[in-house]
Design goal:
Transposase Inhibitor Protein From Tn5, Chain A, domain 1; 3 domains; 10-stranded mixed beta sheet; alpha+beta
Length: 432
Amino acid sequence: MALQEKLTSCVRRLFTKTNDMRQAYDFFSNSKVNGSALFLPHQEKTLERIAVEKSEYILAIQDSTSLNYTNHKAKLELGRIGGTRDRYLYGLIQHSTICVTEDNIPLGLIDLRFFHHDDKDTSMDSASRKIEDRHSYRWLEALKVVKEKINSTKKVINISDREGDFFEFLNDLTKDNQLFIVRVKYNRYTGEKHRHQGEKLFKVVDNEDVIGQMQVEIYDPNTKIEKPIELKLKCVSNVKLPRVWRSAGSIKKTDLPIKVNVVKAYNDDYCWVLLTNLPIKTCEEVKRIVKLYRCRWHIEDYHKILKTGYQAEKVYLHSSRQAIENALTMIAISACRFYWLLYVGRQSKEIKANVLFDDYEWKSLFTYFEKRIPINTPTVSEVVNLIARLGGYKNRKNDKPPGIKTFWIGFQFFTVISNTYKRVLKINPNTS
């Protein structure tokens, strides 16, 4: 509850009372507490939301983000997360799988795991190790969770960025008849065999004619706003990707080439080459694949909230890896709820504020801004805009919806304002 109110990873900021702070440290460090058990209730709630969702497809979006604790000298059991031989970076890597509807409504996390590069023996070349001994195995583990937990009730489209472009992942997706959209990382050879006998993948799709154009919005890191761009479209069906060679035997000789459809959406500045087993017979079907891949920004925004909003790289637990993972699990769950609140506030004009806020919370905002408290409950969107105004949002007619950082800053003030208003109501119930 404290995490949800104060949106921080710092235990000292979460609890002002020394005793509460001490109990929090003891809880995270308790050997009987583990992240998997802490995550389970959230996973169950996510599955409940998926079960009642009317959308035909559920998008399962995987990605990883690094949590850098190199300068936290007191932390224990941390491993390499990147860097060079001259200067390694130490910390943990969080791999998340977030579920989203085809209409872009976030439903929650279905899988969460932490690792670092020293968890595996990296002294041997990657191709010489079994898939279970490589860090990319986390993609297959998450895929297994998605299959076991969701596939029995809903159709799933698995979406990943370039990290998911490796043979074992694509092979498992194909064997299990799971739908997928994976952005290409490797310009591999195509055909029946892997011994450089076919054309390169990019050349195969480049030889096709442009079938149409479409407009999408992307985040511009320079202006920090979303901007529309125009993309040309190409596609090619039934491209064969031959099995790769692994000396460790994680890929069998009986594994057949993978058949995929390839979509290319590009202009002079941007280029997405996507592998999929969704149909691409018409231009509209190709556009749909690009739009679905565009939904991958959900996990990017979620990780931004985790690191920028909750400051997950500043977890001041000078303790074991288990304690740190326990704290990070709680932060991950709270960040997911915060993201859902922000998204609903941006998009929904119908959901009433009392679904997500207590009466005293939304009334405190109207009081603070010296507005007349409405007789009818306002919408979540109205309340979110007021919270964002506390963080500097102008709410002008043509302004974009509030951003993550603006809303996060506003939420800090909102917590103080609403709690103060609640205390005033206790002293003088006639205030409202």
